[in-house]
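Comment thread on ticket #2218

A.B. wrote:
> Attaching the input chain for the structure job we discussed in standup.
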Amino acid sequence: MCHASRHFMDEPLLIRVRRFLAAQGLFRPEARLVVAVSGGPDSLCLLHILAALARSGGPQLHVAHLDHGFRGAQSAAEARAVADTAAAWAIPATLAYADVPALARAAGQGGQAAARRARYAFLADVACAVVAHAVAVAHTADDQAETVLLHALRGAGPAGLRGMRSVVPWQEWAADHAPFSTLNAALLIRPMLETTRAEIMAYCAQSHLIPADDPSNRSPRYARSRVRHQLLPALAAHNPQVVAALGRTAQICADDYDFMQVVLDAAWPTLAAERPDGLELNRDAWQRLHPALRRYALRRAAAQLGTAELNFAQVEAGRTAIDSGRTARVSLAHGLVLDVGYTSARIRSVGATASAEVPQLPADALPVPAPGRVLLGGGWLCVVQHDPPAKPSPWWVAIPAELAGSLALRVRRPGDRFRPAGGRGGRRLQDFFVDRKVPQRQRAAWPILVADEAILWVAGLRAAERAAVSGTGDVFWVGIIRDEEPQDNAR
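C.D. wrote:
> Ran it. Output below, let me know if you need it in another format.
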């Protein structure tokens, strides 16, 4: 796959990646990156650059490669080549195999969708295992252009046309695949999102890298491949800078999308109110919204109720019903109903009942002894102990021992905010619940661990920055478990 490693510290691409890492606080020797490496030119180029930067004060690296099981002996050979390259460059590596065709059949998904899900689940697992600060993937400006075109062909708005982001927090890319650990909340980063494929090929040639060739990237059976090899070249004949132009479109749409969310945040308190059976929208406040904000409001309401993204037809059906001024009932999506009245519209999940699968606090607040245990009711128990649990679980958290003297579990309160460990600032607890798709009916009694009223842990979901531990200091382990489960080493 490669000849002897060479690097050029004045190489523009290397400088660009270094600046990107520095901007994210990752250009430091104690930082750790998982690098997703398929063996193709993009990921091999990224790994080569990061290896050069690691030798000049940059982050530690760990290679991750997943064989998706599509191409038999060919993909197995590529996995071996990635392992050989990592070994030659003295970079630790984790390699795995997934039978993605079988996963796709079992889930009723297309092969590419199943592959993406398996890949990110694998990367999240590796990030947890090596306690990474970030996972680096090698998407390029050309990939961004293809993504924008694919979304445009499907009729997407700004949310889709913003394409891929250069930095994505853990809860948005990995939370569905792996539990959060107080020891990491790895970002997903794309250091080469402003780099063209032509630049990467030139770098590979200059550095004597020999990447693998995946013929499926040229197969016309995949929409992305058709966009890459047919549509983009045709557009380039009209505008040779089409990749850069589509990149600008993505940036403009990303900024517009963020602005719309800020405006909706300001309107939300008077527009929406949580109800035991769903979420209620005030029609007077609704009428004051621009039609574009009404669409975003419906999407946000559906998300708060744990429903997958509404498509355009579903959003328009709901918006039209509320705009009409008449009473109506609309089925927005599977299991989600909109009941429009004269003064309000209520969105609810049909047959929704509180789940016994998650703990719910029986009181507004409960003191928690350390060490000790507290019965929560509903078959749940909170345990505080010195020793870690026998098996890792998102329902356990380690906290510094100095915080254990004033522990309590409480329900959320208006205005609650916390700074998630590994995050980039404070967050409203309400927004966090929405992002994690916690059903509205479960939020009011969701257990929150506090010390002197400061939030340490949103149980099962995320720890606060204040609770993060290094793994070597004096800690207490706090777990919320089934009452019948054994508490290993609890005392």
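A.B. wrote:
> Thanks. Noting for the ticket: The longest strand covers residues 60-67.
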